[in-house]
Amino acid sequence: xxxxxxxxxxxxxxxxxxxxxxxxxxxxxxxxxxxxxxxxxxxxxxxxxxxxxxxxxxxxxxxxxxxxxxxxxxxxxxxxxxxxxxxxxxxxxxxxxxxxxxxxxxxxxxxxxxxxxxxxxxxxxxxxxxxxxxxxxxxxxxxxxxxxxxxxxxxxxxxxxxxxxxxxxxxxxxxxxxxxxxxxxxxxxxxxxxxxxxxxxxxxxxxxxxxxxxxxxxxxxxxxxxxxxxxxxxxxxxxxxxxxxxxxxxxxxxxxxxxxxxxxxxxxxxxxxxxxxxxxxxxxxxxxxxxxxxxxxxxxxxxxxxxxxxxxxxxxxxxxxxxxxxxxxxxxxxxxxxxxxxxxxxxxxxxxxxxxxxxxxxxxxxxxxxxxxxxxxxxxxxxxxxxxxxxxxxx
Length: 395
Prior knowledge:
Helix content: 55-70%
Number of helices: 15
């Protein structure tokens, strides 16, 4: 997000943002060009050949559009359940914040868009920025763990080609890296989940440890670290809320199961006749973990290579580069297009101005959900912008 004063013309704001991020944008363009070259060198088509479209069942693409919109709304509605009820925004604002956040993740390279949603949560609720970051991190960790487990279970339960190919298209990348990716993701997100639980349960001892050791070097640094940790851990308070935790778990499971079913429908509709739900789970898992790493704008290149890497586990190369290419092309265009469309609608019509939305104080939120001792009252500045000149937003 780029803040502007009421007197700043929009072109100046945009050009200033472009100048500040020129290096990042240039590097991302180079990465995109490299991935395009890699796909071409591997004989992996971005756009499927003309003859591949003859196997497409058009109604399945339309059904996938409806299914993606439904699961996208479901996904975007979950994060507010991780917020204590007294700070929880209404559903419309919840969806708008999530839509814009996911749109930023698509547009900005190297996962820079991850910072947008915490900033919006902070700006349009009464949560401190660090607590908003904790909420976003908790959702990411849970989703990553569920997706990794889904990938492992699908791999172990599905029948793959034997032996696994030692290349993906013409690229000398062995398909055996996929099971390694699955186990690596499960271990990584499992450790992050464990750290999240430990930091929440043992917040007091960890805070005292920080104060004791950092205080030797800098009392101010120790106070900042303790205060920041308290705010971040405040985003994990859902761990002790039985009703919220159960609802969030059910919505998460429903979201991923619906995704698998939608992937299977589009895969079958693109002409991969023998596809199964387990194979669709593998494709979903590989795509999800592949896009979790820093990548080019729009996930371009990473998306296609991850998708082809999953498809070669099950189907002959001639199927992968025809019907499989149609599936990946439609999947990419539909997901990217709808994500950006709903993000644009939410940006212009979904969020009220800050002064109306209740931008609140940024007192530390403890793990129990309340304000830390000594924090000011919730009223007073709760409806005021951080700075008088920041009444207008721009991207």
